[in-house]
Amino acid sequence: MARNAKRSSKSGASNPGAPKSGAGKSPTLAARGITWLATAGLQRGAQGSRPWMYLGVLASGVRVLRWLMRPKPVTVYRAVLEPGESLEIVTRSPKS
Q: Does the reported pTM lie above 0.70?
């Protein structure tokens, strides 16, 4: 049996406009382009092309900065379960 736990006001549960974590999203065209530039630049730069190496290092730096600036996941609900307790998660489609 699941114990009823109150939602904390600081958890973001009552804020439907809170940023989403981005998990499961497909990369944008810009992100795929930066990834391609980083990969191609580093590969061609390793073969001796200095301009491609510079481009690969720059694009890799942009990827790292985008990763560091990504939105952090928001905890919506948290509760402590005692031994023998369970938690049921039910999803429903939004009302139109």
A: no
